[in-house]
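Please describe the entry underneath.
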Amino acid sequence: QLKVQNKKLLELSSSLEKKVELRTFELQNKNALLLKNQNEITVQKEELEKYRNHLEELVETRTKELTIAKEKAEESDRLKTAFLANISHEIRTPMNGILGFSDLLKNPNLSSDKQQKFIDVITRSGERMLNTLNGLMDMSMLETGQVKLNFTETNINDELSTLYSFYKVEATKKGLLLNLSIPVSDRGIIISTDREKLYGILSNLIKNAIKYSDVGSIDFGYSIKGEFLEFHVLDTGIGIPEDRQVAIFDRFVQADLADTKVYEGSGLGLSIAKSYVEMLNGEITLESIMGQGSKFYFTIPFVKFEKESCNISIIEKIKNDDFSNLKILIVEDEEIASTYLSIILQNICSELLIAENGLEAINIYKENPDINLILMDVKMPIMGGYETTAKIRELNSDVVIIAQTAYALLGDKEKALNAGCNDYITKPINKKILLSKIKEHFNRKLIEL
């Protein structure tokens, strides 16, 4: 019995040992799994901590961005308000001059001197309004990327001399001394650049200098700096605060936006000038001290113009009387515009015909094939100016056609020339410019004959 019992005990012991081993193995596996889970939890905690820190950084960055955006929006809103007020001022002020003095001209008892003074005020007011509109158009073209460069032969000294003559009178009226600095050794310097852009840059800088200067002098000119020409416009005006010297090149910004003193202008000039300089691969910089004046410098590449060799004969200048009997057709749907053109052309034409649309113009030309000159409005009812020009060119390729339009966008001149026009003039039409263009074309035609 003892042997049997001992055997059973041994078997029970062996079974218990196996169970203990199995249970130990299970516990070891569970412990390993627990350690693994603990490690994973630790890693997850670390990742969560990193993610939390990253979120905090993102929130902080985003908060800063939103703060900056809010400040910019507030600044933009302030600038927009200032711009709208400024544009309203720039439109209503000249309109006040035009309408007010036009009404005063109705007085039949006005002396001839007063009439002339009133007319001068109306003219200056109209020019001021036109400058505002031109600035807005230029900025709109720059923003939409429609401004193209047109490199031509440019005599730097001639351009600066023209600017000097143009602004000399305005500077003298304000009691300012206008100086032109040109290198003596480079009187005949000719480069290849966009002449209109260069003129626009200098014109905006000089106008600003005159506007913000009440006493002293304004000096402008250029010098050669290696592969660049460096231009300068220096004034003794009010100066620009240090905290405004970067923003001054932004759109619609003036040196002083406060209402303490309102300066004429839309705040577009320097922005346009900077854009033009950068288009020409140059740089513009500013130095200014409040109460002492401002110094503007800008560079453009010094690329000499390579002129093609050609035989040019010396032609004797032809007098105005040589084209005083022209037969002219005015194609214009606006009665005021056609009346104005009729008055300024009456001394150089033997016969004046008027058409109110393109279709009527074609019919008139068919009945009068001896017409010498056509002034073609671009936008008209029934048939536009470009289409009308193309159809007239089918009848005659030699008649001089000058496009005239209220659109003044860059590239419109090229459109007019591509349509078959000989030249292009923008409204409001300047009498001297129009007569000069007519003289140029008919002098050329007479020379060819």
About this structure: The CA atoms of residues 324 and 348 lie 4 Å apart. Confidence is low (pLDDT under 50) at residues 255-263, 308-322. Residues 2-104 form the longest helix (103 residues). The two ends are 152 Å apart (CA to CA).
